[in-house]
Amino acid sequence: MSGDDSSKSLLKYVGRLSQLGGISNFVHADGRAKGTSTLRVRTAAGFEFWVVPDRGMDIYEASFLGQSLCWHAPQGLVHPAYYSNRDLEWLKTFSGGLLTTCGLTTVGRPSMDAGEQLGLHGVISNTPAEQVHWSETWEKGDCFFAIKGQVREASVHGANMLLERTVSSSLKSKGFAIEDIVTNQGVRDTPLMILYHFNFGYPLLTSNSKVYAPSKKAHSIDAFSAESVDQWAVFGEPMRNIAEKVYFHEMEKSTDGCISIVLVRDKDRADFGIKLIYDAASLTQFVQWKMTGENHFVLGLEPSNCSTLGRHTVREQGLLEMLQPGEKRRYYLELQVLDSAAKVSEAIGQ
Question: Distance of CA 106 to CAs 57, 109, 124, 214, Å?
Answer without folding.
Answer: 18, 9, 10, 27
